[in-house]
C-alpha cells in the first residue's frame, strides 16, 4: 500500500485548526513540534493565534494515571485551555447549554504526544478525560478565571 493523502483525509486545516464539527465555542488547534538533533520545541499557547480574546490568568499541570478517568467537570464561568504534552488521552465533551446551537452535542477529541494540540472548552460544556496509555500523561491547563 502506498501511503499518502489518497484515502486519508486531513483532520486539520493548514494553520492547525481541526475540520471536524465541534460544539459551539470549542476549539482544537493542532500544535507544531519543531525537532532537530538537540531535541524539540512545541509552542503551547500564543495570543497572536486569536483563539480567545481574554488574558491568560494562571496555569497548572495535571497527571492522570494509566487507564484512569477524570470528570465530569462543568465550569459556570471559566473557559479551559488544555494542552497535552505527553501520553495519549481522550477528551469527551457534552454541550449542556440550552441556548447553544449545538445543545446536547457530544465531541470526542483524541490527543497524544504525536498529535499535540490546544483544546479550548467554553463554560457550561461538560468534559471528562481518560488516559488511553499504560503510562501517565501530562496535561497543561491554563485559565482565564479562578476555578468556579
- Total number of strands: 11
- The CATH C-level name is Mainly Beta
- Tally of domains: 1
Which structural category fits the helices and strands? mainly beta
Find the CATH topology.
Jelly Rolls
Beta-strand percent range: 35-45%
Describe the sheet with the most strands.
5 strands, antiparallel
* Poorly predicted sequence stretches spanning 5 or more consecutive residues: 1-10
Helix tally? 0
Task: For the record, give the distance between the C-alpha atoms at the N and C termini, rounded to a whole number.
Answer: 51 Å
Helix content: under 10%
Mean pLDDT: 81
Order of helices and strands: EEEEEEEEEEE
Name of the CATH homologous superfamily: Jelly Rolls
Description of the structure:
By secondary structure, the protein is mostly beta strands. It has a single domain, classed as Jelly Rolls (Sandwich), CATH 2.60.120. 0% of the residues lie in helices and 44% in strands.
What layout of secondary structure does this protein have?
Blueprint: E1 27-30, E2 33-36, E3 39-42, E4 58-64, E5 69-73, E6 80-86, E7 88-95, E8 106-112, E9 117-121, E10 125-131, E11 137-143
Antiparallel strand pairs: 1-9, 2-3, 4-11, 5-10, 6-9, 6-11, 7-8, 7-10
Offer a quick outline of the entry.
The chain has 148 residues and is mainly beta.
Main traits of this protein?
four-stranded antiparallel beta sheet; Jelly Rolls; disordered N terminus; globular; 148 residues; single chain; mainly beta
Amino acid at each position: 500500500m502506498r501511503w499518502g493523502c489518497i484515502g486519508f483525509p486531513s483532520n486539520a486545516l493548514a494553520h492547525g485548526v481541526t475540520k471536524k464539527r465541534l460544539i459551539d465555542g470549542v476549539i482544537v488547534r493542532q500544535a507544531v513540534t519543531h525537532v532537530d538533533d538537540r531535541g524539540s520545541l512545541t509552542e503551547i499557547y500564543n495570543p497572536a493565534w486569536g483563539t480567545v480574546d481574554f488574558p491568560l490568568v494562571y496555569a497548572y499541570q495535571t497527571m492522570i494515571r494509566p487507564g484512569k478517568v477524570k470528570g465530569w467537570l462543568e465550569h459556570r464561568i471559566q473557559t479551559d485551555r488544555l494542552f497535552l504534552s505527553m501520553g495519549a488521552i481522550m477528551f469527551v465533551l457534552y454541550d449542556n447549554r440550552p441556548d447553544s446551537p449545538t445543545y446536547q452535542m457530544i465531541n470526542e477529541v483524541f490527543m497524544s504526544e504525536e498529535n499535540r494540540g490546544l483544546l479550548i472548552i467554553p463554560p457550561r460544556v461538560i468534559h471528562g478525560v481518560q488516559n488511553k496509555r499504560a503510562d501517565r500523561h501530562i496535561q497543561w491547563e491554563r485559565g482565564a478565571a479562578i476555578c468556579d
